Amino acid sequence: MKFSKIVFSLAAAAFLTLGLMAADTAKPVAVDKKAGCCVTAEKAGGACTHGCCVEAAKANMNCEKCKGTNAAKK
Ligand SMILES: [Zn+2]
Ligand SMILES: [Zn+2]
């Protein structure tokens, strides 16, 4: 029954490798993140008045100049 043990450990190793790879690729997923100034303005019940943020909002984006991020939209 040695052979099945080897097969099992190989399968386990492959599974672990795939799992690690999946974890690796899952981590750097780009996320939409609003710029801090815009979050503050929203909490205060309004929209950010920065020119750059207004322009970004028009394009339905988060202002990248103010450290906002936009997930790749495809
Ligand atoms: Zn802003
Ligand atoms: Zn801005």
Low-confidence stretches: none
Helicity range = 55-70%
Shape: rod-shaped
Sheet with the most strands?
none
Report what the structure shows:
The chain has three helices and no strands. With 74 residues, it is mainly α. The protein starts with a helix and ends in a 16-residue tail after the last helix. The mean pLDDT is 85. Bound molecules: zinc ion (2 copies).
What are the SSEs and their pairings?
Elements: H1 2-26, H2 36-43, H3 51-58
The site of one zinc ion has 8 residues, from α2.
Tell me briefly what this model is.
The protein is mainly α and 74 residues long. It is 55% helix and 0% strand.
Which keywords apply here?
rod-shaped; 55% helix; 74 residues; binds zinc ion; 2 domains; mainly alpha
